[in-house]
């Protein structure tokens, strides 16, 4: 059998095609606020309450009429007339306009004195000083953070409308077994869709992992038809290359159309972009590092265009400890370890031949060598994307070319 060479499209062109070809699905769901962390607001959220509802004490002490404390000093304490004991957060009684802190008072024979005058409003949080009914809490398109939940609940919001996008994940391959099972000779435990669900779920997407589909075109067709019905975006893991058991492109073409088969990126070149019933389908390579690259460089940007953004990743400048050889016709993504060296950082490419799962564990950064760049020399300063915590090392060999 002669292996078919992919007519690979530039990565930037494929990303733009995805954004333009597939508008954001228009679906919202209503969730209890306590379960909405990580989801994206569908519309602005406004306060149902005025907080505080009335003037409240900002300190423990006594509510007083401020004018009656005029002239108070250490040597000239003033008797408090009809003081009302309040704790922080208590409502200020009508007719009172300030709070004297408890530490600024002394008691004698059931009466209270202060040696510190207070001004109107001192040590008081006025009604509505935090938020007023109808004020904006969160804008539309905001990813709800854990601390946002406290504010929403405090301001009378029990449920919130959030955008929803459903992503289906279909694993394929007769050699695969599920988690907890022992694979036979030539077998493997399916993990690509679990990684994809974790990554895509961080954007606020709702991910569904389907059962493993064996290498049978009829079974794959049935699974794809269900996945398209149920979801807004469908990812098919493995079967995207040109082997005798790689059916993904043919099934997508039969049910819809293949827009791209082959993206000029390494790893991940065999990736497929298709359209079925107007919805995007992405065929992932089976090799774990290539699958991760396709998820990060194709699926995540599409979700971001739909308003489902991944968590911001940190970037830093580092010197390469070793040359990087890259094909100028491709966007290449090189796994690195990053170490602290004095006031800077050293990025070391992982050696070729490292097992894919251990390579992903050991790597804590990725270098994007953009198409047209070609190779990068040892010692060059580069911009890297952190995928983990860099390693602190007190003693490092100097990078070649440094003084």
Strand fraction band? 25-35%
Q: What is the assigned CATH homologous superfamily of the largest domain?
A: MoaB/Mog-like domain
General form? elongated
For the record, the count of structural domains works out to 4
How far from one another are the termini? 55 Å
- Tell me roughly what share of residues is in helical segments: 10-25%
Radius of gyration: 31 Å
Class by alpha and beta content: alpha/beta
Structural overview:
The structure is a single chain. A hairpin with a 2-residue loop joins strand 22 and strand 23. The protein folds into four domains: 161 residues, MoaB/Mog-like domain (Molybdenum Cofactor Biosythetic Enzyme, Chain A), CATH 3.40.980.10; 46 residues, Molybdopterin biosynthesis moea protein, domain 2; 70 residues, Beta Complex (Molybdopterin biosynthesis moeA protein, domain 3); 72 residues, Beta-clip (Beta Barrel), CATH 2.40.340.10. The protein is α/β, with parallel strands linked by helices and 403 residues long. It is built from seven helices and 28 strands. The N terminus and C terminus are likely disordered. The strands form eight sheets. A six-stranded mixed sheet has the order 18-15-19-23-22-20, sandwiched between helices. Strands 24-26-25-27-28 form a five-stranded mixed β-barrel. The protein has a three-stranded antiparallel sheet with strand order 2-14-3, with no helix packed on it.
């Amino acid at each position: 059998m002669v292996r078919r060479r992919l007519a690979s499209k530039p990565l930037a062109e494929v990303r733009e095609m995805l954004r333009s070809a597939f508008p954001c699905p228009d679906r919202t769901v209503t969730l209890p606020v306590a379960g909405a962390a990580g989801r994206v607001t569908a519309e602005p959220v406004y306060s149902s309450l005025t907080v505080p509802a009335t003037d409240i004490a900002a300190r423990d002490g006594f509510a007083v009429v401020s004018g009656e404390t005029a002239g108070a000093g250490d040597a000239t304490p003033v008797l408090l007339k009809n003081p009302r004991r309040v704790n922080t957060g208590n409502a200020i009684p009508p007719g009172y306009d300030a709070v004297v802190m408890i530490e600024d008072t002394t008691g004698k024979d059931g009466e209270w004195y202060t040696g510190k005058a207070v001004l109107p409003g001192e040590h008081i949080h006025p009604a509505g000083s935090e938020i007023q009914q109808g004020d904006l809490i969160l804008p539309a398109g905001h990813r709800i953070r854990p601390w946002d939940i406290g504010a929403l609940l405090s301001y009378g919001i029990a449920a919130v409308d959030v955008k929803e996008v459903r992503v289906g994940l279909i694993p394929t391959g007769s050699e695969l077994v599920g988690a907890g099972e022992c694979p036979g000779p030539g077998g493997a435990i399916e993990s690509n869709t679990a990684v994809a669900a974790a990554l895509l779920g961080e954007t606020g997407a709702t991910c569904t992992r389907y059962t493993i589909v064996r290498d049978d075109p009829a079974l794959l067709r049935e699974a794809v038809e269900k996945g398209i019905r149920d979801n807004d975006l469908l990812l098919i893991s493995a079967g995207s290359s040109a082997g005798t058991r790689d059916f993904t492109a043919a099934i997508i073409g039969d049910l819809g159309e293949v827009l791209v088969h082959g993206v000029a990126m390494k790893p991940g070149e065999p990736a497929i972009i298709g359209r079925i019933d107007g919805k995007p389908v992405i065929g992932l390579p089976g090799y774990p590092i290539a699958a991760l690259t396709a998820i990060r460089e194709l699926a995540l940007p599409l979700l971001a265009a739909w308003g489902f953004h991944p968590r911001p990743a940190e970037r830093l400048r580092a010197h390469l400890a070793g040359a990087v050889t890259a094909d100028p016709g491709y966007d290449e993504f090189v796994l690195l370890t990053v170490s602290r060296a004095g006031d800077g950082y050293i990025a070391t490419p992982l050696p070729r031949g490292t097992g894919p799962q251990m390579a992903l564990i050991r790597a804590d950064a990725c270098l994007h060598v953009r198409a047209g760049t070609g190779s990068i020399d040892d010692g060059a300063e580069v911009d890297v994307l952190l995928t983990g915590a860099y390693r602190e090392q007190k003693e490092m060999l100097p990078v070649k070319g440094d003084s």
